[in-house]
């Protein structure tokens, strides 16, 4: 929300500079996101001028030479200014930029010659001051009599309208233009939290500034209302020209309407255009601009109908029918559903309630009768409508946060005053008001001891009352504190004593609260075994020199195609996001390897060739049929599981003077990382098995198996996939971390020095088709409990073992917890191992 500072100061002026105001508002909960400057760079060179004479330019048909009286600014006589506007004429009072003026775009105005005629300034159009969009002609302030912005009466003055009618007097040459028009102002860009819709109007922000600084607050601009209550009456008491029926009161808590006749539609006064422009609104015409102005001031949106274009003189508020369409003010045809609300007349829907009006009943240049509608709509309904139709308006942004029904009449009062003053309108007696009576004010007891208990410091009761009254709460003394009446605009936000304590704390100053620790009362915290195991896994990888990365949970639709996943692969069961940030982030990822490959590609493209990366994160897949979900998956409409992925690229070890070109990473490098991870978690039954992956090299990959479950994969990246990411040789792995942790064990300590181990080596010749892992598994099974460890320490292929065969040298380590083993103890075990290997086609090598 954009709040022009000049407008804000008219209701609360703490005499602080803009940075101090920013700090006060932010520290009390109304965060100032940014400060913008709107309008000209400095105001001293912008003056009011009087055009004395206009002559054709001697060398240009479209230019005119004007003699302009600038009063004391030109003591040597009128200034000569060359102007190209077609509407410039003698007798006009105009806005003039003199040499030295800094324009809104930063340009510094200088004396110039235009087609041979010296020009000492510029007669300004609206857009050149950023107070409107009109560039067809100059802006005329007076033309013999006060025009649109210089003759304001008290009605407009009550709602903050500046101008000569509000104390400046008649315009005189040389008068500073800033005294007439808001040509320069700082603008606060505020982040309003969803629970504070009362701050979505300038006066609401002024109330916050009043509470935060103690500066006086001007009276509410809607206290005097030119309209009247009761049913709308036509001429001489005849029935009113409009009827309204609300068929869905649960979605429209209040619907108010007033009828205005003799409306003259035209341009808005310059001050109104300037104020809207600074607040981020585009001026359109006086009627529409008044509705926007009243919305920005009160926080309550309004809508103006051309009453003569309301078919049948009757409006019906009802739920939309699925599939029906409405042409909105932006010229688009919107298709609605049954969760939306429309306002219709005899010819059908004429606007989408709370979001955007319809083209058929909009105010036109020939409009003479206006129906001003101010209603209160259900916030969730407006939110659904806005998101579904992709229509985000100032009105919907306010309604979806939940406005108070009482705000309807605030906006009616402000708009009525301006329509009468600026459009020459006559309001018909009466106000149509459909809806349930407002809820009774809520009374909450604020206990002094409770304030101290929550905040940790006492705040005087008088100070509490002062703060709450500044925020429009009513207070009355009570035995142990205050009885506080919640204002209507805060009804949905403040519902209990703790909310009042928060209001007191934020205005008194959260920075004043002492730093205290809550009472423990025997409470203690500890990590679960799974949490400790996850930390051990991360520490183990970091200890091996790997760097943790955090990738996007979102993925692009093409990732699974680049990974060459077949149509039946479950990793193609992607979950689509309903409101994605972009098409490239429209899916929830089903694997971590995609984001790791993206990170690797960015690093390698920037010269970082040696990479050691890992990521721990959640992957998502559409929930399969009952009974087929993966073990360890958490089901919330989709299957979620925590995975761990590792990516290695570049050299397997750092280059040295002995080995300037060390070997590249391969399958065994990433296998070593997996083994260190298993050791850190004390996972004993982890093994590898042949299993192809479409994105891995077919001869350099394997499945990670835990018990009887396949929990992941490892291997070298397929050359086609590496080419798709523009990567060199890459080795990687990914596994289900939750399932791995389920098989982790606590560290167990045992005696390793009391009784020494007994090692025996064994060389066995086997067919090359027998994997080393199969040999190790067979040896472990045959060796029994006394076989403490078995590993391969040498491999030989050559003529001594024959074609198609290889020799594996095994190191067998035997250990007993209660005695020193002898050759006689292990000889039977060795024979059993030899027999087991013989069943695999092996024989002892001589």
Characterization of this structure:
- A hairpin with a 2-residue loop joins strand 32 and strand 33.
- By secondary structure, the chain is α+β, with helices and mostly antiparallel strands.
- The strands form ten sheets. Strands 27, 31, 32, 33, 34, 35, 36 and 37 form an eight-stranded mixed β-sheet that branches. Strands 3, 4, 5, 6, 9 and 10 form a six-stranded antiparallel β-sheet that branches. The protein has a five-stranded mixed β-sheet with strand order 12-15-18-19-20, with no helix packed on it.
- The protein has 20 helices and 41 strands.
- It is 24% helix and 28% strand.
- The longest helix has 17 residues.
- About 2% of the residues have low confidence.
- The termini are far apart.
- Biggest sheet statistics: 8 strands, mixed
Q: Average pLDDT across residues? A: 89
Contiguous uncertain segments of 5+ residues: 144-157, 163-168
Radius of gyration, whole Å: 40 Å
Helix content: 10-25%
Number of helices: 20
Span between termini: 87 Å
Shape: elongated
Q: Give the strand content.
A: 25-35%
Q: Give me the count of strands.
A: 41
- Which class of secondary structure composition applies to the elements? alpha+beta
């Amino acid at each position: 929300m954009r709040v022009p500072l000049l407008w804000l100061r008219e209701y609360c002026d703490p005499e602080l500079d803009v940075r101090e105001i920013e700090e006060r508002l932010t520290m009390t909960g109304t965060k100032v996101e940014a400060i913008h400057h709107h309008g000209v760079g400095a105001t001293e060179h912008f003056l009011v001028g009087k055009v004395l004479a206009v002559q054709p330019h001697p060398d240009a048909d479209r230019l005119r030479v004007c003699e302009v009286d600038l009063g004391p600014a030109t003591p040597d006589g009128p200034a000569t200014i060359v102007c190209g506007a077609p509407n410039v004429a003698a007798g006009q009072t105009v806005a003039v930029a003199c040499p030295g003026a800094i324009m809104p775009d930063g340009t510094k105005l200088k004396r110039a010659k235009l087609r041979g005629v010296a020009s000492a300034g510029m007669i300004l159009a609206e857009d050149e001051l950023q107070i409107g969009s009109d560039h067809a002609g100059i802006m005329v302030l007076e033309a013999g009599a006060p025009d649109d912005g210089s003759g304001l009466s008290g009605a407009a003055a009550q709602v903050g309208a500046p101008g000569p009618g509000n104390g400046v007097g008649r315009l005189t040459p040389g008068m500073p233009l800033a005294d007439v028009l808001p040509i320069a102002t700082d603008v606060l860009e505020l982040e309003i939290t969803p629970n504070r819709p009362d701050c979505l109007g300038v006066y609401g922000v002024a109330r916050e500034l009043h509470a935060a600084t103690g500066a006086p607050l001007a009276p509410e601009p809607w206290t005097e209302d030119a309209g009247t209550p009761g049913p709308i009456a036509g001429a001489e008491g005849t029935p009113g020209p409009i009827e309204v029926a609300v068929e869905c009161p649960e979605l429209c808590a209040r619907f108010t309407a007033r009828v205005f006749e003799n409306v003259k539609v035209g341009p808005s006064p310059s001050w109104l255009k300037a104020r809207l422009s600074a607040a981020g609104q585009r001026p359109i015409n006086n009627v529409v601009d008044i509705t926007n102005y009243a919305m920005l001031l009160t926080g309550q949106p309004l809508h103006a109908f051309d009453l003569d274009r309301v078919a049948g003189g009757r409006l019906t508020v009802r739920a939309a029918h699925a599939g029906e369409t409405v042409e909105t003010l932006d010229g688009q045809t919107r298709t609605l559903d049954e969760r939306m609300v429309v306002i219709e007349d005899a010819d059908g829907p004429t606007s989408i309630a709370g979001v955007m009006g319809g083209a058929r009943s909009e105010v036109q240049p020939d409009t003479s009768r206006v129906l001003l509608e101010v209603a209160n709509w259900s916030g969730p309904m407006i939110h659904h409508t806005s998101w579904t139709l992709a229509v985000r308006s100032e009105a919907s942004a306010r309604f979806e946060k939940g406005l108070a029904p009482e705000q309807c009449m605030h906006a009616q009062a402000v708009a009525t005053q301006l329509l009468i003053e600026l459009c020459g309108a006559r309001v018909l007696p009466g106000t149509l008001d459909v809806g349930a009576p407002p809820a009774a004010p809520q009374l909450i007891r604020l206990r002094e001891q409770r304030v101290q208990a929550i905040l940790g410091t006492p705040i005087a009761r008088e100070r509490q009352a002062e703060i709450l009254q500044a925020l429009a709460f009513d207070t009355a003394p009570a035995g142990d504190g205050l009885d506080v009446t919640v204002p209507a605009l805060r009804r949905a936000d403040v519902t209990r004593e703790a909310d009042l304590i928060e209001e007191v704390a934020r205005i008194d100053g959260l920075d004043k609260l002492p730093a205290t620790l809550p009472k423990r009362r025997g409470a203690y915290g500890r990590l679960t075994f799974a949490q400790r195991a996850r930390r051990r896994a991360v520490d183990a990888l970091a200890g091996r020199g790997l760097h943790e990365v955090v990738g996007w949970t979102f993925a692009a639709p093409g990732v699974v195609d680049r990974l060459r996943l077949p149509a039946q692969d479950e990793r193609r069961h992607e979950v689509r996001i309903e409101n994605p940030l972009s098409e490239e982030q429209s899916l929830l990822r089903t694997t971590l390897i995609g984001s790791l490959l993206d990170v690797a590609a960015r690093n390698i493209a920037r010269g970082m060739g040696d990479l050691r990366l890992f990521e721990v994160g959640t992957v998502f897949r559409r929930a399969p049929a009952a009974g087929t979900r993966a073990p360890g998956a958490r089901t919330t409409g989709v299957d979620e599981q925590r995975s761990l992925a590792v990516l290695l690229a570049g050299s397997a070890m750092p280059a040295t003077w002995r080995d300037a070109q060390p070997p590249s990473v391969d399958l065994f490098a990433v296998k070593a990382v997996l083994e260190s991870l298993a050791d850190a978690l004390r996972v004993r039954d982890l093994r590898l098995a042949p299993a192809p992956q479409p994105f891995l090299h077919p001869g350099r990959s394997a499945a990670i198996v835990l018990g009887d479950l396949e929990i992941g994969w490892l291997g070298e990246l397929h050359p086609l996939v590496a080419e798709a990411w523009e990567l060199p040789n890459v080795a990687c792995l990914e596994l289900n971390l939750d399932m791995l942790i389920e098989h982790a064990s606590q560290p167990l300590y045992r005696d390793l020095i009391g009784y020494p181990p007994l090692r025996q080596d064994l060389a066995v010749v086997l067919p090359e088709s027998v994997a080393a892992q199969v040999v190790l598994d067979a040896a472990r099974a045959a060796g029994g409990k006394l076989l403490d460890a078995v590993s391969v320490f040498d491999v030989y292929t050559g003529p001594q073992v024959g074609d198609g065969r290889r020799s594996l040298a095994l190191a067998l380590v035997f250990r007993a917890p209660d005695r020193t083993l002898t050759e006689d103890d292990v000889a039977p075990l060795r024979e059993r191992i030899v027999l087991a290997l013989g069943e695999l086609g092996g024989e002892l090598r001589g």
